[in-house]
Amino acid sequence: MGIILWVIFGALVGWVASLIMKTDEQQGILLNIIVGVVGAVVGGWIMTVIGGSGISGFNLYSFIVALLGAIVSIALVKALRRA
């Protein structure tokens, strides 16, 4: 994917993940993009470790993988903030 698609994909994934984790009011669009892109990397890594394929483009499978990675990333940040 090109950089523009990564930004759009990251914004969409980050926004949905922040809605699920109830952190949307704390995050702006820039943080949503960062969370989405980091989520795609983390989700792709997790899927590769368990034997699946990582992010393969702008499709539903990649969206779900990135969303799971973003949720894991947000959960880790929330846990570290409480400690």
Automatic annotation (TrEMBL):
<keyword id="KW-0472">Membrane</keyword>
<dbReference type="GO" id="GO:0005886">
    <property type="term" value="C:plasma membrane"/>
</dbReference>
<protein>
    <submittedName>
        <fullName>GlsB/YeaQ/YmgE family stress response membrane protein</fullName>
    </submittedName>
</protein>
<keyword id="KW-0812">Transmembrane</keyword>
<dbReference type="Pfam" id="PF04226">
    <property type="entry name" value="Transgly_assoc"/>
</dbReference>
<feature type="transmembrane region" description="Helical">
    <location>
        <begin position="58"/>
        <end position="77"/>
    </location>
</feature>
<keyword id="KW-1003">Cell membrane</keyword>
<feature type="transmembrane region" description="Helical">
    <location>
        <begin position="29"/>
        <end position="52"/>
    </location>
</feature>
<feature type="transmembrane region" description="Helical">
    <location>
        <begin position="6"/>
        <end position="22"/>
    </location>
</feature>
<keyword id="KW-1133">Transmembrane helix</keyword>
<dbReference type="InterPro" id="IPR007341">
    <property type="entry name" value="Transgly_assoc"/>
</dbReference>
<comment type="similarity">
    <text>Belongs to the UPF0410 family.</text>
</comment>
